[in-house]
Every structure is written in structure tokens, then in C-alpha cells.
Amino acid sequence: MDHSIANLGPTIRRHRQAAGMNVKELAQETGYSGAYISQVESGATLPSLSALSTIAVAVGADITQFFPVTAGPKVRVTRAGDVNKLRMSPNAAEEYTILSSHGPGTSLTALIHRAYPSDQPPVKFRNVGERFALVLSGAVRFTFSGEVQDLGVGDSAHFASQTPYSMEITSNGPAEILWFVSPAIV
Q1: Could you tell me the pTM of the whole model?
Q2: How do residues 123-154 score in pLDDT, each as one tens digit?
């Protein structure tokens, strides 16, 4: 199953307005530019899953409110070759393979994030909870409050995601990262 999330902009705008924030205030709270927030809200661009999580925290929403609610099985077995992918748009360069159950009562999300090198500066994230990342292929540079950590295959990082961080792919090709995220995001 391949899921595509589109039309997030109006939902984000409703949550921002419900929080009593204007675009400038949301930009300051998230560290993104006002232009980026406006592009997201208008649907001109779609945020990554981490950026969406940062925005959700800033407007006081649970990130799961941005996704269709479907209760998954209490025990989920993912077999090699099973495809349960999430893309923020149909042609997005990044994709996430969802490994864990989701829905009410789920406390963590396990997923594989496939990301490609970019010429754009890395985006800073700040989320609720904690993250564990294991590099499965490629190379990744994490920056935690100015401290740079280069990770290769088999390296991992476990961190409280309230601390601002950024991630960039430093390998020539895509990188795959196994993530465990708490609280659950999908």
C-alpha cells in the first residue's frame, strides 16, 4: 500500500489560527521562514515528516491529527517485500516505509526513511519526545545544537528531539535510516 498525503496546508492553517498565531509567529516558533510557512499553507510545498512534526508541536497539535485515522492491528508483522509507504506528495523525493502499527494507543512509530542528497541547506527540526536513528545505507550528518555528528552504515543516534537538530545526506546516493520515534507520529 502506498499512501500519499496531500492538502495539508488548509489543516495546518486551521490549527495555526486555532492556536491564535499568525504566520510570522509560527515561523518564529518553528525556526522556518514566514515564506516557507505560507508556501506550506497554500499547498505550494509540502513539509517533510519531521518538519510537519515541528509545526504540529508549535501549534499545539498532535501530528496524528494530520493523517487519516485508521486503527491498525494490535500485532503487526511486516514481511520482506511488504510495501507500506508514506510520501508527503506523490512525487516526493523522500519516502517512509511504515513498519509499526498505528492508531489509538500506539506509543511509538518505527519507519525506514529513504532520503536523497540535496543542494538545499539542512532544515532544523524540533519535536516532542525522542528519536532513535540507525543508518542502514549511505551517510548522514546530524547537527545537534551546533555539534556535528557524521554517521555511516551501522552507526546510530538516540536523542531528545526537543533539542534543535538538523539532518543532511552526505553520501553520493540515497541514505536509508531506521527510525524509532516516540511519541508515535503515524
Answers
A1: 0.67
A2: 788 777 899 999 999 999 999 989 999 999 99
Max distance between CA atoms of the chain, in angstroms, equals 46
Instruction: Kindly state whether residues 130 and 91 are assigned to the same domain.
Output: yes
> And the C-alpha cell for 174?
540515497
Q: Is 12 helix (H, G, I), strand (E, B) or coil?
A: helix
Within a domain: residue 72? Answer: no
Look at residues 63, 153, 57 and name the one whose alpha carbon lies nearest to residue 108: 63
Residues 102 and 177 in one domain: yes
Least confident among 56-60, 74-78, 138-142: 74-78
For 6, the domain range is 2-66
End-to-end CA distance of the chain: give it in Å, rounded.
Answer: 15
- Rounded to whole angstroms, the Cα distance separating 2 from 56 reads 23
- Residue corresponding to grid cell 496531500: 6
Say if 75 falls within a structural domain: no
